[in-house]
Amino acid sequence: MEHFVVSARKYRPQTFKDVVGQQAITNTLLNAIENNHLAQALLFTGPRGVGKTTCARILAKMINSDGSETEDEDFAFNIFELDAASNNSVDDIRSLTDQVRIPPQVGKYKVYIIDEVHMLSQAAFNAFLKTLEEPPKHCIFILATTEKHKIIPTILSRCQIFDFKRITVKDAKEYLKYIAKEQGIDAEDDALHIIAQKADGAMRDALSIFDRVVSFSGKELTRQAVTENLNVLDYETYFTSTDLILENKIPELLIQFNHTLSKGFDGHHFIAGLASHFRDLLVCQNEKTIELLEVGDDTKAKYVEQSRKAPHAFLIKGIALANDCDLKYKNSKNQRLLVELCLMQLASITFDGEKKNSKHYIIPPSYFKKKGITPISVELPKTEISVEVSEEKTTVNNEDVKIVVDAPITAELPRPKLDLNKDHRTSGLSLKSIRAKKEHQIRQMEVVIDVEDLPTEAFTEAQFYDAWNAYIKQLHKKGEKIMASILEMSKPTLNTTTIQLEFPNDTLRVELEKSQYPLMEFLRKSLLNYDLKLDISVNEEISKKYAFTTQEKYEKLKEKNSNIEVLRKTFGLDI
Fold first, then answer.
1. Which stretch of 43-52, 281-290, 363-372 has the lowest confidence by average pLDDT?
2. Which 3 state secondary structure label does DSSP give 142?
3. Please, where are the H alpha helices in 329-393?
4. Mind listing the pLDDT tens digit for each residue in 442-456?
């Protein structure tokens, strides 16, 4: 049996030109080598499988090449790879710094590639600082990591940093197409595209998935084989779901969702994919944004075709509903019901049938259609008003103008409109009714104030306090204890027709302002003076007098009931 080499190793790039999707970094490194402008400490950072270690090896080989070596020369004696995940102690770093002093036997440079450098301990980082800052002329350090934020700032400041980006779906697909051609595999464009999407920007993952799918399907790599092997939801699932939603076929839509779940797919994955599908359809509706669609050419044509069927407003609302379901999914106790409810809401967005409009009719129109009856339109009788004017005089610009009308004038009154959607009834206990009553009282007060020739009779201060106390007693009888206690809290002062009140905080002022209209109406009617006004102010110093001592509390109680003093003396009680 011949030894099998995985594609990630077999097709590992040997030159910078072969590196996929990192043109900016490879061009920078090439120019640095050509212009002799290469730093002695480099940091390669980025996600997994994007070419960090590969670029480090290519760079180490290029700086030692002088053109006289053979093609298979790898300069193994000059390149040292250290895995910081397993060699992260201070002793390992000290051993490395001891080796650094020895010059290379072959080539110009000794290159130290430290992979997963973020795994070094704090002490190891500190031991490495001086060597990294001032290495020998024959030594170059290349550090590689996937988590740059875990490296201490003193290390970062001593390195030239190169940020590797994720491989785009397009670049990954083109490289997979090249490998498939090299291996003599007939691969569909959509199949390679799904593999590139599944890799999520990592070329090594894409090659690993490619090997797995080829082992499953052989020399014919189809889209169906890829979706079955990778257990991913196919585009066709979402195309079918969207067609059922646009056609308002709720039963068929729920059956299709059940069929998807029976294949082992998660409902969360389904609804998130549906939101992405709506987004892709929205992107296809504008020629400027269609390039944002990362799918194969055959699938792109299907997206463009379906985007013409889906209204813009439907897609916007559909994305919002699906995204809301996605956010609520993890916290839901009945996740399947949540997704099914979302699907039913999506299928009802464009529904404009009998059920939606039947509220405007006592008997729905479908009843007459089934019976073969044509409804007869009924018009309300017109109301005519006849006015006969023989002669009329008016003045325009200080001149008399005579208007003579011989024929009767007929005016058609507008038909009364009955809004069947509006509910004219209001519950007596609802917040709406309470708010409406208060607004009515305010309007009443404003009307009373605006009326002329209202009484403004004089009154004494004693009469005012009698009316004030009478209103408080009236509140107690009605059970409005809170408002009564607020009015008792501060004794009003009268300044001609202005009633002045001071409260210790703003909350009491606001409460009284809300209920001032019935109070002022009562006082004005009782004193027969409609010039009365209410002036409410806040004085926080007043609050101090409410902090009673024990003796003051006792005196207050004694004022209300003198028998308390008798009780205290009889039993010899202390205060």
1. 363-372
2. strand
3. 335-347, 354-357, 365-371
4. 555 544 444 456 788
H/E element holding 502? strand 498-503
Q: How far apart are CA 543 and CA 504, in angstroms?
A: 5
Give the tokens for residue 551: 């003796």
pLDDT of residue 325 exceeding 90, the answer is yes
With CA atoms as reference, report the closest residue to 339 among 270, 413, 432: 270
State phi, psi for 323 to the nearest 5 degrees: -65, -40
DSSP assignment of 25-89: HHHHHHHHHHTT---SEEEEE-STTSSHHHHHHHHHHHHH--S-S-TT---TTTEEEEETTT--S
Q: Show the DSSP H helices in 169-249 as ranges.
A: 169-182, 189-199, 203-217, 223-230, 235-246
Would you tell me how many other CB atoms lie within 10 Å of the CB of residue 287? Answer: 8
CB atoms within 10 A of CB 5: 9
User: What phi and psi, each to the nearest 5 degrees, are found at residue 167?
Assistant: -75, 130
- At 322, the amino acid letter reads A
**Ranges of H-type helices in 232-330:** 235-246, 250-262, 267-284, 297-309, 312-328
Radius of gyration of the chain (CA): 44
Entry pTM: 0.53
Secondary structure (DSSP) of 473-499: HHHHHHT-HHHHHHHHHS--EEETTEE
Produce one character per residue of 398-411: b if its CB has 16 or more CB atoms within 10 Å, e if not: eeeeeeeeeeeeee
Residue 411 sits at the vertex; the CA angle it makes with 408 and 412, to the nearest 5 degrees, is 145
Cβ contact 497:532 at 8 Å: yes
Distance CA 205, CA 7 (A): 10
Residues 486-520 have pLDDT tens digits of: 888 778 888 888 888 888 888 888 888 888 888 88
- The residue written with tokens 């009364």 in the block is 416
The share of the chain scoring above pLDDT 70, in percent, equals 78
What mean pLDDT value characterizes the chain? 79
Residue 338 has pLDDT above 60, yes or no: yes
Alpha carbon of 35 to those of 40, 55, 63, 569: distances in Å?
A: 14, 18, 12, 108
pLDDT range class, residue 390, cuts 50, 70, 90:
very low
Strands (E), 389-444: 392-396, 399-403, 409-412
CA distances from 546 to 267, 411, 540, 542, 555 (A): 62, 71, 11, 8, 14
Residues 410, 408: Cα–Cα separation, whole Å: 6
For 444-495, the pLDDT digits (tens) are: 554 444 445 678 888 888 888 888 889 888 888 888 888 888 888 778 888 8
